[in-house]
Amino acid sequence: MDSLLDALQEGRLIELPEGADKIAALRLLARILEAIPTLPAGLDIEGLVLERERTADTSLGKGWACPHARVSFEGDLLCVVGWSPHGIQYNAKDQAPVTIITMYLVPENQRNQYLREVSLLAKAIQNYPGWEKINEAREINEVRDRLLDLISSAKEMVGPDSRARMIRLQRPRIEPTPITDLSNLIIEPVMLVVGPDFKPIILTQHAGLARYLETVAGLAERIETDGYFQNGGWRIIRRSKMVYQNGRVMYDCLAITTRRKDFPSES
What we know:
alpha/beta, about 35% helix, 11 strands, about 270 residues, six-stranded mixed sheet, Mannitol-specific EII, Chain A, five-stranded antiparallel sheet
């Protein structure tokens, strides 16, 4: 279950907006995947996912759904996890509202790995004795802990490397950012480059966001210690970290907000 572990570790567990239906939830999760900068530009994950949903049932039962998009290029198996506190009507076979949606991007070279991971997920869901606690959760940190417990309960089915990674995975608290209007959602990839001999460099296509982050004192320290930074209407989530020579570090981040008058503009 490496892809699910990666999603939990890298901040890709998202609370879905209250009142969001199935299509709105799938579009939001697809946009988050599309914003990953390592993926090709112009990739229409939303279209691929919605097209598949018209022909296949992607629910796994017990409040879990697993939509995916297959692409022809090679790369890493990626996923993003959406949590709905009140459940979404998903037309599941067991008629249960869906509270967890795990959306996968499946490159050509990862199709067998994807099938193995989904198979393990389905078995873990059926055998996990505390599944009802996930459905009853009302706080995103509780959901994250329960998902880690689910993976732990499947330790006999996963390989030793995955078990070791899960044991090492810390459980920092996640401060939720309510998202109420999907039409106003902004998701921006951000690179933060820091070093001992220069001021932090912000790389993003959103000019207003860049100007704002350049004024934030201690931004790199918060990203390093907490894995995220939230203020000024933006939530900055660290996805990965690369360490280079001479003490230089690059953080690959995702910035999420909703467009409001008091938020930094693009101009």
